[in-house]
Queue: 2 jobs
Job 1
Amino acid sequence: VKINEKYRMTNQRQVILEEIQKVRTHPTADEIYQMVRRRIPNISLGTVYRNLEILHECGLIKKLELGRSQKRFDGYIDEHYHIRCMQCGKVGDLAMDVSHLLDQASMSGSDFKILDHRLEFLGICAECQLKKVEKTH
Ligand SMILES: [Zn+2]
Ligand SMILES: [Zn+2]
């Protein structure tokens, strides 16, 4: 099966894609490698990296490059915003519509034709909020 003009869907690629689509935790390449290794024990980290780039190039997964932390991958490719915990670094999906009003509004502030925007919300996740409470008692 061909994914696009350049690439075929190989078994390795299929397994990597399935593993990413199983979770909503936005795993890093290392985490995906650990997940995939349970199904393909002899796969290398380099192969996982290469296939992640190909799956991204084909539009089958998203790459999260916000902030200075490690790149994360997302199997949920509909438009959505992310929220990152400033304490533990966990990245979640935000149940909020993506605002194209922002794109329109930004055009009045520059001579660019704005096509898209990247926005990340920062906060403290529920687990870390609990930890803080425990510490103060
Ligand atoms: Zn947290
Ligand atoms: Zn996401």
Job 2
Amino acid sequence: MNSSLKPNVLIIGAGPAGLGCAVALRECGIPDVLIVDKQGVGASFEAWPQQMKLLTPSFHSNAFGPVDLNSITPETSPADYLHTQHPSGAQYASYLKAVALRHELRFLHAEVRSLRPVAEGFEVRTNHSVLLPKYVIWAAGEFSYPDDKGILGAEHALHSSRVSDWSLLPGQKFAVVGGAESGVDAAIQLAELGKEVHLLSRGEPWGEHSADPSQTLAPRTLDRLRQCLTGASGSLHFYKNADIVSITPTPGGYELMDTEGTPFLSPTQPILATGFHSSMDRISHLFSWRGRSAILDEETDESIITPGLYYSGPSLVHREAMFCFIYKFRARFGIIARSLAQRLGYEWEKPLKLWRERGFMVEDLACCTDCKCAIEPVESMQPEVVDYAAAA
Ligand SMILES: Cc1cc2nc3c(=O)[nH]c(=O)nc-3n(C[C@H](O)[C@H](O)[C@H](O)COP(=O)(O)OP(=O)(O)OC[C@H]3O[C@@H](n4cnc5c(N)ncnc54)[C@H](O)[C@@H]3O)c2cc1C
């Protein structure tokens, strides 16, 4: 059989996770590594709204040890390549493409429809062909799988990931459902365009503090929020305890309703900033689960019930620590490459030396479970917030 249909390793997804693993495997000299993607390299980033930027800053600090937070290999830096600190989605996708070109990675344009273990590896059915890899790295991300949180009538709303340009949305008054990063970003973008924005949130993520940036708003978002509250031409209104469960079109627009039956009327299509499903849900039967997190072998990031199936990307969880930023999940690229090199009989220690030294092969998982700043944080600015039910 053609080796492109029977690769040693098939990587599903050409985002930062899939590409980073592919480069690490290449460093070990592993041949026949194929990346399959239904869209193309960096497609999730290319689909970001035009105005959105990475909130993790890029800085070309690699030579002194701390690698650019958004790098996917130890020897590249988006800051150095793009000359910017907060790349847009399109810019970051161009960095990913440059890395893929530099390492001559091999791609197949196809959508994976099913994956099942067979005698000598896996059978992977795509919309075009059947692939028979020995090993699989699942790196299909989250962005392609928006989560509407089961809101009744969600089809009448617009998920934030489907917005290509905030300035193209018609209307003046907006309701944004969800107060985490995407919701606050949407609200800021619209307020800066002079709109009246109502941010409906269950909790108050903008007021929470955590030493783990996965649990709280990023410093860049807080900076933008402060700027927006004092300088935006539009207005921003925060509501807590707004657990929206239904959206119904009305003659004047849309009625949003919370669990208590409290309505909110929006003349424009509501924006859902309600997050994403993990692509792992599509092959959930191949993993063992603890709550909503797949349990992966700590030595390899491999499924504990499907040998040979690895996971790389933002849904990675070890010891309750979430690896949902690029700088976090890249810490395991070398771990996956080492495991595959060992299995396929390739040298890994020397080829991955730099990966280990620069934090792309972190073995000690204790590092991410006990992180607390040694000094107390200063008080943060709090926006004015009203209780959803009281405001109605
Ligand atoms: C709004 C937003 C802002 C963010 N900002 C930051 C940030 O500032 N810093 C940071 O570190 N992280 C940030 N993240 C998170 C970061 O974008 C993701 O963690 C990262 O994209 C995950 O990389 P990935 O390679 O796993 O997934 P992706 O980049 O989504 O790549 C997955 C690829 O898999 C492909 N694919 C999916 N399903 C299939 C299939 N069935 N068959 C074939 N191909 C498939 C897709 O086409 C896609 O190209 C942000 C995320 C969002 C949504």
